[in-house]
Design a protein that fits this description.
The chain is mainly beta and 214 residues long. The chain has 2 domains: 106 residues, Immunoglobulin-like, CATH 2.60.40.10; 100 residues, Immunoglobulin-like. It has 2 helices and 18 strands. The strands form 5 sheets. Strands 3, 4, 6, 7 and 8 form a 5-stranded antiparallel sheet that branches. Strands 13, 14, 16, 17 and 18 form a 5-stranded antiparallel sheet that branches. The longest helix is centred in the N-terminal third of the chain and has 10 residues. It is elongated and about 75 Å long. The N and C termini lie far apart (75 Å). InterPro entries: FN3_dom, FN3_sf, Ig-like_fold, Interferon/interleukin_rcp_dom, Type-II_Cytokine-TF_Rcpt. Receptor for IL22. Binds to IL22, prevents interaction with the functional IL-22R complex and blocks the activity of IL22 (in vitro). May play an important role as an IL22 antagonist in the regulation of inflammatory responses. It is found in: Secreted. This is Interleukin-22 receptor subunit alpha-2.
Length: 214
């Protein structure tokens, strides 16, 4: 029995936590101390805070991966959820390892906007598009994150003549089309943008660079 207990403890999953970007929410964990025998498999359950019964996640039942997609199971974004994982190896099952409480609306990271650059002779016109959630409207299009939050866009310009790393803020606000004027012809400029959520005081990563020569 002791040997079994040791094996149970040594395969128990560690660091069970939710990662979430634009409400794409996945449960991640690390293998136990045993550094994982080849035949270790994992089982995932989830529940809404306050419910007594855990639900099995069928797609993540007896899997070898260390990640399980719970996007559809956490679609009520203001509800708090828990996930938990147990491992099995050589016929021995570990105890469950629970995650911390996870509330998608509060904890998801917001992605950067999509940036399209159109240039005229001394100005750049930017078109910004909010990141999209995985959840769909009845017609099938994905619901933008602006449906869930008041979002602002932060736009930065990089003058490649001066300094690759020097991002000058040129705009902050809600507009989806922005004009940056009084630029120098023949100079290469790059644009990056972030999404900012004032209510949570949280910014996205930078978008990928969009560059143009006037």
């Amino acid at each position: 029995v002791l040997e079994n207990r040791d094996l149970q403890d040594s395969i128990k999953p560690q660091k069970v936590e939710f990662h979430s970007l634009n409400f794409n929410s996945t449960l991640h964990w690390q293998p136990g101390r045993a550094r994982e025998a080849r035949d270790t498999v994992y089982f995932v359950q989830y529940k809404v805070y306050g419910q007594s019964t855990w639900q099995n996640k069928d797609d993540c039942w007896g899997i070898q991966s260390h990640v399980c997609d719970l996007t559809n199971e956490t679609s009520d974004i203001r509800e708090p959820y828990y996930g938990r994982v147990k491992a099995a190896s050589a016929g021995v099952y570990s105890d469950w390892s629970p995650s911390c409480r996870f509330t998608p609306w509060r904890e998801t990271m917001i992605g950067p906007p999509m940036v399209t650059v159109v240039h005229s002779n001394k100005s750049i016109i930017l078109k910004l598009q909010a990141p999209r959630s995985p959840y769909k409207r009845k017609r099938g299009s994905k619901i933008p994150m602006t449906n869930y939050y008041d979002l602002l866009y932060q736009v930065f310009i990089i003058n490649n003549l001066l300094d690759e790393q020097h991002r000058v803020p040129v705009y902050k606000g809600k507009d989806k089309v922005i004009k940056i004027e009084d630029l120098r012809p023949g100079v290469s400029y790059c644009i990056v943008a972030k999404t900012y959520v004032p209510m949570l005081d949280r910014s996205s990563a930078y978008s990928s660079r969009q560059c143009t020569v006037l």
